[in-house]
Amino acid sequence: MNQLIFNIEKTFKPSEEELDALKGIMIESYLDRNEFFLKAGNVCDTLAFITNGSMRLFYDSPDKEVCNDFFFENSLVGSIASFMSNMPSIINIVAIEKCCLLTLQKNDVIELIQYHDTFKKMASIIIQEQLIRSEKREAALLRNSPEERFKNLMEEHPKLFKRIPLHYVASYLGITPETLSRYRTKFLL
Amino acid sequence: MNQLIFNIEKTFKPSEEELDALKGIMIESYLDRNEFFLKAGNVCDTLAFITNGSMRLFYDSPDKEVCNDFFFENSLVGSIASFMSNMPSIINIVAIEKCCLLTLQKNDVIELIQYHDTFKKMASIIIQEQLIRSEKREAALLRNSPEERFKNLMEEHPKLFKRIPLHYVASYLGITPETLSRYRTKFLL
DNA sequence: CTATAAAATTGATTTAAATCAAGAAAGTAT
DNA sequence: ATACTTTCTTGATTTAAATCAATTTTATAG
Model-level pTM? Predict the structure, then answer.
């Protein structure tokens, strides 16, 4: 919790009172390995900060799952799209490792945002980041080859390969586990 | 203009007064073929409804351009991400055909949203749609093969092939123009 | 600690799409 | 209408990644 609060304080400079309001609505919660945080088809009415552990975001597909993202400590998880729109989520979020979470219920979040400008701003920035991330991801999938995507990921998040089962990483890159394995030996890791 | 206003009225049910406020800030504007509406690197401070014509959204890439989306009559164009965050846009938007636009300046939009709940809601929905669209697009790029993406696009937007130069469509699908051409003959169009 | 399951690697083969190259068709401007 | 450019198509070849198949390594539960 401390690290998270520290980050929020540093970035958004909430007042003492605002910080208490935030702390007041956060509920500690836990997930086992492979336990779902959000299932496609359900409306996302909870967001969570991960204080410990990792999760993956994936899409259902007739044959295979497709892994689209990973989350670690200090990141916020949930489908912003579903949370905002009350539409059923098309994404799944599931724990890869055991997770400690600080969850936020929708009603509380709405109230928090309504009464505190700092959190209104924070919400807006989270949405912006999501939009920018999507733009970049889309571009990367279109303009980079699988091998380039692999190399970029190795540069930007080498730790990911230590912590995440590689077939999820392969799926994230849009390749088969075999191909990922071959890239790894090719680029001597 | 009429069609656009009709759509907004139907969907968001603004009051007479709100509708006037919206009309009051819309400025008619035109773009020639290949003229930029938004250049990567610039901050997006203008949004626009297309009343006539078509545009494409693309990313710069060292070698090639990568086309990521198309816009036609009655859609809103601009980089929501850049517009919200004031960060330089990473996307370009350029006219494919000559365009008639109704543009909205950032200051006016902010004011409009500030004073009118209907437009606050409208903004929120536009953002949601953007987020949902991104999720779907990302999933499609990862889980569908190029050929499947082609077939889906043929089903969902057959008119696109009539109106948009095919090399842009190819780029949107993440394939070469040659491959698109072969798909077309293969699936007898 | 062992048994079992899940994940990762390695090799051989197939397949889909890219690339290279040329020509045809369509669009635009003079 | 003619020339010129851009776009589209078609064919031959290459290439990257998928698939198929088997094995090794690693993780997990009893």
Answer: 0.91
